[in-house]
Design goal:
Layout: E1 2-7, E2 17-23, H1 31-39, H2 43-49, E3 60-64, E4 73-80, H3 87-103, E5 108-112, H4 123-138, E6 156-161, H5 167-192, H6 200-214, E7 217-221, H7 223-229, H8 232-238, E8 246-253, E9 262-266, E10 268-272, H9 292-307, E11 312-322, E12 334-336, E13 342-344, H10 352-365, E14 371-375, H11 379-385, E15 390-394, H12 397-410, E16 414-416, H13 422-425, E17 434-435, H14 443-452, E18 460-464, E19 470-471, E20 481-482, H15 487-499
Parallel strand pairs: 1-6, 2-4, 2-5, 5-6, 9-11, 9-14, 10-11, 13-17, 14-18, 15-16
Antiparallel strand pairs: 3-4, 7-8, 8-11, 12-13, 15-18, 19-20
Helix pairs in contact: 3-4, 4-5, 5-9, 6-9, 8-10, 9-15, 10-14, 12-15
Bound molecules: ligand BES, manganese (II) ion and zinc ion (ZN).
Amino acid sequence: MRIKIVTGNITELAVDAIVVNLFDGVKTPGGATAAVDKALDGAISNLIAKGQIKGKLNETTLIHTLGKITPEMVLVVGLGKKKGFNAEKIRQVTATACKLLRGAGAKQVATIMHGAGAGGIAPPVAAQAITEGSLLGLYKFERHKSKRSDKKEIKELIIVEREQKGFTKLKAAVRKGTILAKASMLARDMVNQPSNFMTPTDMAEKAREIAGKWNLGIEILERDQMKELGMGGLLGVAQGSQQPPKFIILTYKGNENSKKTLGIVGKGLTFDSGGISIKPSAKMDEMKGDMAGGASVIAAMGAIGELKPKINVTGLIPATENLPSGTAYKPGDILKAMNGKTIEVLNTDAEGRLILADALSYANKQGLSPIVDIATLTGACQVALGDICTGAFGNNQRIIDKLIQAGEVAGERMWQMPMYDEYSELIKSSIADIKNTGGRGGGAITAAKFLAEFVGRTPWVHLDIAGTFLLEKDRDYFPRGATGIPVRTLVNLTLTMAEE
Ligand code: BES
Ligand code: MN
Ligand code: ZN
């Protein structure tokens, strides 16, 4: 779908459908909605008077124009209460509207800028949110269907602004929204791909492709180099698989005058069977998405390369499968991570922290700071927070706050979890430095405490996306399947850090 922004009168556009809106409880429409109402001889205000249109959030009313104006359909979307209206609600209503109109067979759609007038939202913010909501909401993953489920597709969305002033900023906002949404969709595609189409080698190829496109530095470490570096965690997990592990390094240099480089590290488990501590069969297929953290890093690096902020960023992705076999690592084995710490493996299904141990040690050795890691790390986090928000853990409140704020702006919510010292006691081992499980209680926190052993004193945040990387059912601009979380947060964080 193409997205265009124009100035003018929406009723005069030669499109199939136009989208207007109404806040909850408003009796006489204003702005562009009023203009459309007038052109339709008061059809909208009539429906309001009859109580058919109330303006509740995500409420939709489709009106056929019967030749009164060029567009065949007018869709009135409810924006909910004026108080508390924000960009996230714009994404939601835009996705709702676009999905409905796609179903109705519209190919060309025009929309007014929700919230930019009476809603008090800055016009560029509204334009970016409309762009993100429409692209993300209409996303489908149909690569493996021989026939497409439905040929209906919106070809073009035109955002209509009535005034000419500030138009350059609006165009930039649409561009930024497009880049962010496309990056999220790239991560979704990678996560939705099954493990036979997204092996560690495939991930490395994808990273190469993105690096080539946006002129990023790329290096891929093979098993021999991992051995030289002492990456015993990654090598241990990879031992049971026929697929060679890859350690992917992407670099973006946007500020030659700065010695600092932000590090983003993503878990790249292209399939997690649990290994010898094998998982139950039910929902094991979902573990094809256990590389969602790594996918989000590759996608965010691409967007950063395209947006070119004045900052240095390095993305690291340890990628492997976790499978049981005659060569697989076993419960009781002891592995030595790159920073020299020894780990007693009590459960081979707690593999994410083992590969991250090496990636975080590597990040630390490179002097990356701050470090953000993203991982589908624990079922415990999914139990604690569900699919509504991501768990955030860390050792530095300033960077945690910054990340949570970047997530809020993106509509990718995060909730901070505690990191009391007592949790560290639970991962002490009697025969090695630490063990890879801390028991059932506080499982997401003991996993984070495990990771903390490999970041030293570097400011660090860990995001556990086990609950949020995948949705079982559609939710506004998140169609079921991979969500692409937290790609837009990572890019937002990078942009704000570049401004500081
Ligand atoms: N990849 C899983 C965590 C997961 C579970 C992500 C469900 C998404 C949805 C991780 O590798 C894992 O298996 N964790 C174990 C750790 C346990 C053995 C300490 C878990 O959470 O059960
Ligand atoms: Mn596992
Ligand atoms: Zn896993």
